[in-house]
Design goal:
This protein is of the alpha+beta class. It contains 3 helices and 7 strands. The strands form 2 sheets. It has a 4-stranded antiparallel beta sheet with strand order 4-5-7-6, with helices on one face. Strands 1-2-3 form a 3-stranded antiparallel beta sheet, with no helix packed on it. The chain is elongated.
């Protein structure tokens, strides 16, 4: 159908009536639906809002898993530090004589790996001193994070350590 030279009239029903020369009437509906650009008919701002919601949901699942992994790694490094410090105390002249009277961290560098630091993974310093029994020593570390401290405690028998506040102390040998 050719619509040149046609009369157009817009009615209240948002219809366009077209009358051509042959008096054939056609109805064309205008503005029935809103056409939007974008994916699946969504505008950019709507897509951005959906993306932000999905990122928020993903973060709520991933954050606890990442934090759990970090705490596990921190606890493992602290445990390795205690094991290294304990081995150095055994290998030192104090351990050979089985008398730890006067032991301190500054006596152990020759028996520790070059990469070992007195500062632990959590930013606190390891300490070592003689126990009330001179044939034993106490290695201690302040562990303020309850979850990390619980992980460290789970790796030892309860007879091997004491906890005073946030300070974890392991007694050796």
């Amino acid at each position: 159908m050719n619509y040149q030279n046609c009369q157009l009239e817009v009615t209240e029903e948002k219809q366009l009536e077209v009358n051509d020369k042959n008096q054939v009437q056609s109805k064309i509906y205008l503005g029935v639906g809103k056409k939007q650009a974008g994916l699946m008919g969504l505008a950019f701002i709507e897509l951005f809002a959906v993306f932000a919601i999905l990122v928020g949901i993903a973060a709520s699942f991933l954050y606890p898993m990442i934090k759990n992994g970090q705490e596990t790694a921190q606890a493992t490094k602290i445990i390795l530090g205690f094991q290294t410090l304990t081995q150095a105390a055994y290998d030192s002249p104090y351990g050979v004589a089985s008398n730890y009277t006067g032991i301190k961290f500054s006596d152990l560098p020759d028996y520790l790996p070059a990469t070992f630091s007195q500062r632990a993974e959590n930013g606190e310093d390891y300490e070592i001193k003689v126990n009330s029994n001179p044939t034993r020593f106490d290695a201690s570390l302040d562990i303020p994070n309850d979850r990390v401290r619980a992980r460290v405690m789970s790796k030892y028998d309860s007879s091997q350590y004491t906890v005073t506040g946030t300070t974890f102390t392991i007694t050796g040998p």
